[in-house]
Amino acid sequence: MADADYRMEQSSPEPRYAAIKKFVTEAIGRGELRPGDRVPSEAELTKRFAVSRMTAHRALRELQDVGVLTRLPGVGSFVADTSAKGHIIQIRNIADEIRARGHQHSSLVVRNVAENATHKTAPKLGVAVGTLIYNSLIVHFEAGVPIQLEERFVLGDAAPGYAEADFSQTTPNEFLTKAAPLERVDHVVRAILPAAEAVKHLAIRPTDPCLLLIRRTWSRSRLVSYAHLTHPGARYEFEDSFTV
């Protein structure tokens, strides 16, 4: 990367070690650093960011602790292969998937509102225009890297309180498992180019291929949730197995 990519505003109130961590994770998110790539050494970071060797060491160590980097003594630090694996047949909570890989899950709630179904959204749940539904848009992160943009439409009377739920602390999957126990699920998987909203929130390019999972779930004999799950193709893959 060019030296200019490492420059920092001297007036930034952000701790220097945190700024270095942010720089590395954002570079990974943009695809400028990929699994197996070597990241700048402590000496390089010390020079480029005008920080102490201890500060650079802390930044790299903390990124290693959460699974973003792997460190080889005497060689350097490298981007870990954090390609996430999702399950198509199983319905698993993404937070549990991430924790099972030993990484930290976090999320950003872009919106979570109650609204009346429109001509565009009513067909997703098979309801009449004007029916009360919930609409949420959430970015899920694995070790600080965005791996899923979840847009979900939920039948209002099937999940009271959905719009008031704190999805920075729980997930729609966890909420719905209690409010509307799963009875049936349909899946469709497609290879797509990302929409503008996905480009923005997943920190990817418009030309980056993505995997789209459309999931519809039923509870108590009615369709209650329609989820549109977009994953950067370079960071996520689906796998499953079954016995016949």
Question: What can you tell me about this protein's structure?
Answer:
There is one protein chain. The protein has 244 residues and is an alpha+beta fold. It has two domains: 3-79, Orthogonal Bundle (Arc Repressor Mutant, subunit A); 84-238, Chorismate lyase. The protein has seven helices and ten strands. The protein has a six-stranded antiparallel β-sheet. It is elongated, with a radius of gyration of 20 Å. Residues 1-12 have low confidence and may be disordered.
The main sheet orders its strands as 4-5-6-9-8-7
Supply Rg: 20 Å
Give the proportion of residues in helices.
25-40%
* Structural category: alpha+beta
How many separate domains? 2
CATH superfamily of the largest domain: Chorismate lyase-like
Order of helices and strands: HHHEEEHEHEEHEHEEE
Strand element count: 10
Assign the CATH class of the largest domain. Answer: Alpha Beta
**What's the main sheet like?**
6 strands, antiparallel
Rounded to the nearest angstrom, the distance between the terminal CA atoms is 50 Å
Which architecture name of the largest domain does CATH use? 3-Layer(aba) Sandwich
In short:
The chain is α+β, with helices and mostly antiparallel strands and 244 residues long. The protein is built from 7 helices and 10 strands.
Features of the shown structure:
single chain, 244 residues, alpha+beta, Arc Repressor Mutant, subunit A, Chorismate lyase, six-stranded antiparallel sheet, two-stranded antiparallel ribbon, 7 helices, 10 strands, 32% strand, elongated, disordered N terminus
